[in-house]
Predict the structure.
Amino acid sequence: MNEEFPDIRSVVIRVITNKPVRKTPYQVKGVFMRQYPDEPIIPMLDGSYRDRFLYPRVQVKILNEQIYIIGVHEGVDSVLSLAEKFKEFDFGNITFEVQDTDIEDVNQQFIPSSRLVRYRFITPWVALNHMTGGRYRFLTNQEKPSFLNRLLGQNIIFLANEVGVKLEDDIFTKVKVSSLFPRPVDENKWGAFMGEFKTNFVLPNYIGVGNGITRGFGTIYGMFNPDSFSFDEEELQQDVSKKSNLQTTENFDDLESVSATDVPKPSRRRRNKNKNQSFRSGSTKNKRSNKSRHHHKKHYKRNETQKHHLPRTGRVFSEEFDIEDESSENREDEKFNTSKHHKRQHKF
């Protein structure tokens, strides 16, 4: 164990079922909450801890039609506890029998490395939200790689801060995407990329980076290929000196460095309370005249009508580190867990 940094643990559970799983992460989490309501993992799935943990400590993915459950730091024990109870998953219109589980339990994660570690995005990296996407659109093709490098570096520093790792050295990143033109993602108008990146930081396999983490986006996997670069796991975990970092990384072109001091402190947007204040203000005016009461009543109804046309968006951390609204996830979960929705997406 490295004495300079805390020993951060992660675990990956791959659930082997009797048939392919063609469900969404929301649907799987919904089944967990219904079948195991008293398990300690539930508050990490239903949004109860969203103010305590800005980065999800438990993540559910569907990869190669199999269920993956990832636990990070405080989420590890609850994931292992849940996996012991798996027998079958009842989705209403289909039931999956659990035949086995593969467990990957790893220590010494989220620490700086003296070498650049290569990772690949195995699901689309939703790097751009509506704010960063607007900035990206007006950059030249020469400026866009640097923007993505810096964005990824800020995300990594955010992850380190979230699990209690205090960084003194810069984070270096080099992103390589298949195209500089992002692929749009659903109604949120997010921008997604496929590709890989290198960084001087050790990250757990299968965790999410970027936007849409709870929906399975931005899943990474370490590509420890000796033909690409030298990799020694023990050295990677222990050698984190600044001198070694600089000697290793200065040989790579197009590296972008980000300092921990450059990353803004994460903050959650609070719900607007002006609606209730306006309503109370309108009620006070109503006492003054019938005409005023009639006017405010119509105005209130018009606002209610407009409210139904507002898009529902759950925002997640990106450059500004906005955190995904779990209440939005729960609303989507109710929709995704209906048999009507499932039949529309998949045929069995």
Notes: The longest strand covers residues 95-109. The chain has two domains: 8-108, 109-262. The CA atoms of residues 37 and 43 lie 9 Å apart. Residues 109-262 form a domain with the Alpha-Beta Plaits fold (CATH 3.30.70).
